[in-house]
């Protein structure tokens, strides 16, 4: 780790002009390349207090041992030089594109005497017409196969062509009329070139005129009773229409545009590009990149543009380039694109209409590509094993944490405060063991107290089930059939909870079996920094649990916090361990947000029956169905309410009292006789008239899989 002040240049030595700078490590390897409108201002940002730098930037400047720069005339030159140096040096702290292969194009070699249609990659050659790019070479071959019956252009290699010319026999395509066989003189060089021109025009989108001409020829042939020729023309038209269906029209016919979308999280980003030519999507491509530097969406777009158009063999810049965010500053990039194209280029964010709708489609593809990449990465056993080993090493654990539980707190400005618990075993989700909690101990917003309460409640259950089934820790692992301790399938221990004063109530499933919540994790992860970690550790200490590790993952800087430590553990950005911790944390956040939104929506839709203790959704629906409305239910007597299936006298009394309290202006009901009373003050809130002063039973807590209320 180098001290940046040891190689910091004096501010007066740095020019205040556009340029490109390079950071080098102690071995003189270039580790980062950047550009700046003002080198002096940009480099000053790197040489400030390390605590103020983003962790990725801090890692870069402490790895570097020197910095150097090159002055250029304009920002456009800086952009070009930056890209060329990134390609030359491949710096470890710059954005890296994983899928950096050359995409296939459909090429027509108009620079040859007998033009050839083929799949072509790499450097673009002069005199060759390119269409695409395509995602897969087979997509090109499918399109060509459909068109060859109408445009039988040569597709064979030079060797096959020369051999056919020498023997006087065409290849198989010549015999089945999918090649005009210029190799044996069936068609002249001029006519074959005209055929290649027609093929190119059709691929360029000029299809309407050609189809109308074929339809007229078909009609004329039918009128002249040349039915075989008419049938052949009909089949040609169908083949062309089928080829056109593969490239659906999405924009106006004259539109040539590239649409770029980005889906990203803190560690990675997926870039998707749709190529629209002549109003049709002619190609699609994409990359997944590690965000090894602190980069904005606009910067990711800029890198994508460099990747797309930077090489001599790169794509041709279209008239329009549509992006989700503009680079900052945008002017140099737009000038650079204009220079690459040779005419004006519109670089903008689509705001409305078909282009905005298509951009949303590209964005969905980018999001799916990122999810697919993460799924493939997570499903790899070797990767998961390495991730768990890296976590164990970074947190100084005795063994890999095969079971990880993560907790997150969610609320909306202090209302509907809830928490989530998600479980990962062997690096994979165990959704059947997810739990969610309502915060019961206090009102309002306090993430630290909420975290303490949730950890306390979860692990009090662990201890209660452990005590109920016996102290199996001294007897080795619990039995494989799940008769004691944790079940063989890893289901959690007994779902036991109680008030925060330590009273424990054992809950059972419908069939009488105790709920399982006793299988402990090796690692507890909390969403948050040092305060949340301290609260979780304090909860475990108060319960006397000392064999479960705790850490926190702060979302803003992706730092791992340990109890009692003043400084966080910073895992490398390429670490599989950090990637797994992030997945666990993000899943807990998603699960908590979903529950919180559900509660909020339910509260907005709440009615007077929702306040009746012990009245579930099924019996509420039965009451409304029986009476037709809450108004009619409110005017019903106790005996009338008891007519509803599943409603006993005690429940009916509770319903009548709750509805009377919900409408204080309405007459009260004497729950003993079912008669109307004049004075509602005789019934105290939370009591029944039949049992003065006795609280209405609230029912046992009910926590099912994925839900606690």
Automatic annotation (TrEMBL):
Its main location: cytoplasm. GO terms for molecular function: DNA binding; excinuclease ABC activity. Keywords: Coiled coil, Cytoplasm, DNA damage, DNA excision, DNA repair, Excision nuclease, SOS response. Pfam families: GIY-YIG (PF01541), HHH_5 (PF14520), UVR (PF02151), UvrC_RNaseH (PF22920), UvrC_RNaseH_dom (PF08459). Interacts with UvrB in an incision complex. Belongs to the UvrC family. This is UvrABC system protein C. It comes from Streptomyces naganishii JCM 4654.
